[in-house]
Amino acid sequence: MNFWRDMTKPIIGLSPMDGVTDASFRFITAKYGPPDVTVTEFVNVEAALYAPHTLIRDLAYSEIERPVIAQIYGHTPELFYKVAHVIGELGFNGLDINMGCPAKTVASKGSGAGLILKPELAQSIIRAARQGIEDWSAGQSLDDLGMKPALIQSVLKLNRRRFDGVTLPPRRAIPVSVKTRLGYDDVVVEEWIRTLLEEKPAAITLHGRTLKQQYKGSADWDAIARAVEIAKNSDTLILGNGDLKDMEDVYRRVRETNVDGVLSGRAAQGEPWIFRAKEQVKQALRSQCREMIHDVPVSLAERFRIMLEHSAHFASHTQIHSFVGMRKHLAWYSKGSPGAAELRAQMVRVKDIDEVAALLRAYATSLGTTFAADRPPAWPEAHTLQP
Ligand SMILES: Cc1cc2nc3c(=O)[nH]c(=O)nc-3n(C[C@H](O)[C@H](O)[C@H](O)COP(=O)(O)O)c2cc1C
After folding, report:
1. 41 lines ligand 1 (CB under 6 A)
2. Considering its fold, how many domains does the chain have in total?
3. Quick check: CB of 175 below 6 Å from ligand 1?
4. Considering only CA atoms, which residue is closest to atom 21 of ligand 1?
5. H or E stretch covering 187
6. Does 272 share its domain with 143?
7. What's the CATH number where 251 sits?
8. Domain that residue 355 falls in
């Protein structure tokens, strides 16, 4: 079932960010955005198979995130074949293969953007992942593949929590997509996109930079437009990515390039609600009227409530993550408020949600207002992840 095809274009989704788009951030974005589609942080295929706690940490999600896609990376087709079974079993709506990560630890091993230098391997990885999904949907189980009992237990545990005891949906062949860059050292987008299209992925998300550029310079949307042109008569959607600051940028880039959609990453840091305006963008594109897009204001009180709810959700993972991982989010949320620098400096030292609440109360008082800072209501046990 290819959900990509059925979505209203342009698709406006949340881009995966390792260390950022974890289960809590995705939950909060889905609740206060929501984006059209959500992608998990990337998960190494070896870790997924041999360190099952990785699944619990990185592949937990809640139903409100749907359609939700699991992103995996690696360089060994057989492992993609096996992990595809796990992704299917976990009820994801799609499987995405990372061919864009520029980190030395990833790309120098031939994974992530390293695959741009190995087009044939990249193609066999897509084929292996798709075959894994097909065999899983035809009935092959994790047991059939001789997977470790601890891995199977982790999958069962995640499913029980998410579905709260409800039966799993029937097996379906979910779409396989790719997220990549324009090239390794140089822009080779035309050749690279043609190589990927031979394997007919359901979608390709293209970050408008090469590996060598890392995050420097500006994303090259002209190159993304060339990829759209090449994919025009195929069944593969092209999503553009890179430097979209707000929904006006989304409007402009979609108009200029005719992409089927976009993924936005850094703009959602500290502003998970940015996707609220996505319907305005679609409307504005239909009526060709940019003026229809305007900010959806978020009051200070609402921002504070979201900070607390995000912290509480994150704290439910503390046996896996330490609260330290929440600090950067709190600093991002603090941006732009009056006297933000001091609030930020305090937020990057907090140890738990009570400290967050106390800081928010004191900050509200300093602005001559009050903030009750009540603990958010507990969410269903199914969404918490205490092992
Ligand atoms: C901290 C961080 C972590 C990232 N991790 C991933 C990842 O796990 N998988 C992936 O495909 N891209 C990853 N990216 C790249 C983003 O998805 C996106 O392509 C890039 O940030 C450009 O889009 P933006 O300008 O909207 O942020 C990451 C980016 C950042 C900043």
Report:
1. yes
2. 2
3. no
4. 265
5. none
6. yes
7. 3.20.20.70
8. 300-383
| 275 in contact with ligand 1, CB cutoff 6 A | no
**Which residues on neighbouring strands pair with residue 272, listed in sequence order?**
none
Neighbours of 208 (CB within 10 A): 25
Say yes or no: 208 and 62 in one domain.
Answer: yes
Q: Are residues 280 and 310 in the same domain?
A: no
Q: Are 39 and 263 in contact (CB under 8 A)?
A: yes
Question: Is residue 111 in contact with ligand 1, taking CB distance under 6 Å?
Answer: no
Question: What is the Å distance from ligand 1's center to 39 Cα?
Answer: 11
In ligand 1, the atom with minimum distance to the C-alpha of 267 is 26
The answer to whether the CB of 239 falls within 8 A of the CB of 257 is no
Same domain, 278 and 359: no
283 & 310 share domain = no
Tell me, in angstroms, the distance from the centre of ligand 1 to residue 102's CA: 10
Using the CB atoms, write b or e for 103-134: b if 16+ within 10 Å: eeebbeebbbbbbbeebeebbbbbbbbbebbe
Distance 361 CA to ligand 1 centre (A): 33
The tens place of each residue's pLDDT in the chain, 387 residues long, gives 799 999 999 999 999 999 999 999 999 999 999 999 999 999 999 999 999 888 888 999 988 999 999 999 999 999 999 999 999 999 999 999 999 999 999 999 999 999 999 999 999 999 999 999 999 999 999 999 999 999 999 888 888 877 655 567 789 999 999 999 999 999 999 999 999 999 999 999 999 999 999 999 999 999 999 999 999 999 999 999 999 999 999 999 999 999 999 999 999 999 999 999 999 999 999 999 888 998 788 988 899 999 999 998 898 865 555 899 999 999 999 988 788 899 999 999 999 989 999 999 999 899 888 887 766 544 433 334 333
The residue whose CA has the least distance to atom 1 of ligand 1 is 17
Chosen domain end from 258, 292, 326: 292
**Rounded distance from Cα 180 to ligand 1 centre (Å):** 10
What H or E segment, with its residue span, contains residue 109? none
Closest protein CA for atom 28 of ligand 1: 17
State whether the beta carbon of 224 lies less than 6 angstroms from ligand 1.
no
**By C-alpha distance, which of 325, 350, 102, 120 is closest to 212?**
102
Same domain, 202 and 288: yes
Whether residues 141 and 40 share a domain: the answer is yes
Q: Give the pTM.
A: 0.95
Give the ligand 1 atom nearest the CA of 41.
8
Domain's final residue, options 292, 313, 335: 292
Residues 277 and 324 in one domain: no
